[in-house]
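Handover notes (outgoing to incoming on-call)

Open items:
1. DUF4986 domain-containing protein: sequence verified, structure written out, both below. Nothing else pending on this one.
2. Nothing else urgent.
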Amino acid sequence: MRNKSLILMTICAALSTGLSAQSIYPGQHAGKMKKVTTAPIQVESFDLKDVRLLPSRFRDNMMRDSVWMTSIATNRLLHSFRNNAGVFAGREGGYMTIKKLGGWESLDCELRGHTTGHLLSAYALMYASTGSEIFKLKGDSLVTGLAEVQAALGNGYLSAYPEELINRNIRGTSVWAPWYTLHKLFSGLIDQYLYTDNKQALEVVTRMGDWAYNKLKPLDEPTRKRMIRNEFGGVNESFYNLYAITGDERYQWLAEFFYHNDVIDPLKEQRDDLGTKHTNTFIPKVLAEARNYELTQDNDSRKLTDFFWHTMIDHHTFAPGCSSDKEHYFDPQQLSKHLTGYTGETCCTYNMLKLSRHLFCWTGDAKVADYYERALYNHILGQQDPETGMVSYFLPLLSGSHKVYSTRENSFWCCVGSGFENHAKYGEAIYYHNDQGIYVNLFIPSEVNWKAKRITLRQETAFPAAENTALTIQTDKPVTTTIYLRYPSWSKNVKVNVNGKKVSVKQKPGSYIAVTRQWKDGDRIEANYPMSLQLETTPDNPQKGALLYGPLVLAGESGTEGMQAPAPFSDPALYNDYYTYNYHIPAELNTTLQIDRKHPGHSLQRTGEELIFKTSQGNVLKPLYDLHHQRYVVYWDLIEK
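DUF4986 domain-containing protein structure tokens:
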């Protein structure tokens, strides 16, 4: 406990002094790219180090995440790698010295090592966003250990499992997903180089790339097509990124090697040919196409990315911004039949937010920012348990279900790995910029240092509990530029004041309010975004619907009756219980809601300053991200009021 307190104090000190996922977005990492973005773009991303979170629920989540990730000993994360390379020696198998990781990191799990890759990224993101040396030290120690393992293996290969798993994949024999796991290592090492300037990480990852090229170059086309039927994550995105950093065309060849014809070709033809396929196998492959477009201007890659994104958002996404049922697609015209306890795999939303960032850089489209906000608040923010810092695999939408959290020692699912990153990158999409000005996309307390204009923008807000946000300009000398305030599709009659004087707002919801002037130190913008209650029904059943307040999905509190220990946590004694979880939902659980469809705001009453609503039936509703350790209802059985 004392160690955790010291970690927290160190992080707090650094925070008083911003955030992106394992991808490369236009405008980032100047000077570290041999191949820069050549595709036309509308806006650029800020570097992670230029954004700082101010106190808020988002920073609270980040703090909990940072304490958990730093508490995991480096030797534990390296143990399976060292065993694989034969460089570990310990009495009685090391049980006297190394406490083994469980779950998906067990020594006999074929995905072992993926968490180390995710943590390489998460440490890098946390270091960039806080400046705290503890995250750089953790990352450096992992990279040094991995370099020793790679040297022992001898041929550039690096993994926590033997190369025979790759050979099984090439032969087409049964194996889980070895390239998926390697993708996490590739991405994590690349992030260590980009965000912490760890040159050893770049050396290690380029040797991995050389191994992969030598391994795969001799294979014929039938073998290639057979092996990539197995899930490989976004390893092709990592190869495109390695190509961008080094300029080595062998890595571009590797990225193209993992082009999955069966998945991408239908998207090129604008066909929604998703069927019941595995959702999170698709999204990373489209991310690779996004990077291909940015580096080569391949217009097919852009068109299919745009088509896929809109197909997902318009047809395959639930109210909270999540997708999938038991990790798979389903007929979107049967959505109400897929409100199960296994909806909303977190990794899918994690990757859709990454894809959204690329698309927004190309288009500057407010619709993309609207989706990002909805998924961020309703899914990602609520993935973490505020009491323990543990995270959920799914966002269950079955009425009466509850979130099921990981355990500290015996889970390490894919969504735990992406979860380490999720809560280390909340600042990544708050601001963007171009030659004309700066875009304010999210209303999250934060500061951004726009170095090119030599100004800092400080945003202070209690959103979403309050409808206002205030932005203060800090600059040494007057600067003429435009500040683009997002006008969300969920609001109307927005009011904007500059230094207390009203600004005429002629724009409509789903656009940007452009405020151009010469800005001086201390200038202040105040914006008011009225929020209202809206009803979203399922496409196939108008009697099933979810309530939203502004961008927030509201969920009804449904108590804890029937929740049996270790609920709401996963049971390590059961095989993949998150996938077979019995929620023991009480038969008499109330799932009905009387509603005035035309005026849903008449059916609920907000109580006090908190985001708590009550109905005449006695239902209590609050934001889904605040529902923890109890049952809830998101999609109600609607009764006309």
